[in-house]
Design brief:
Elements: H1 6-11, H2 28-34, E1 48-53, H3 61-70, E2 74-79, H4 89-106
Parallel strand pairs: 1-2
């Protein structure tokens, strides 16, 4: 992540006093280069929520919105926030509310099914 807001945004998530080391093994670069989750969106048959940050400098909104448009049961919610802004404060609360609403629409709640014998 090389965007100007990436390092301060990422490090803001680290708890004070943590022994966190800001490093990763070199072999991770090969996985990151091949990582394209949107390629398979059209094959996802279950409901999927795309939470898209409109000013995201790490994962730009455009490609995500194009992928979301191919998901048969995709739902899109956009936020005027940047990539790391949704992990704390009011933005975090908005995202969590939207995620819970999505789950409420798609995950049945009730007594467990099946036999208890």
């Amino acid at each position: 992540m090389t965007a100007p807001d990436a390092e301060p945004g990422y490090l803001a998530l680290v708890p004070a006093g943590s022994d966190f080391r800001n490093e990763v093994v070199a072999r991770a670069a090969f996985d990151i280069l091949r990582y394209r989750p949107g390629r398979r969106a059209s094959r996802i048959e279950v409901p999927i929520l795309f939470a898209v940050c409109e000013t995201d400098s790490v994962a730009p909104a455009g490609p995500t919105l194009r992928s979301a448009a191919t998901a048969p049961r995709g739902e899109v919610v956009t936020y005027a926030d940047g990539h790391f802004a949704i992990y704390s404060g009011d933005a975090f609360e908005r995202v969590v509310r939207d995620q819970l609403a999505f789950l409420g629409r798609h995950v049945p709640v009730g007594p467990a099914t099946g036999s208890s014998d």
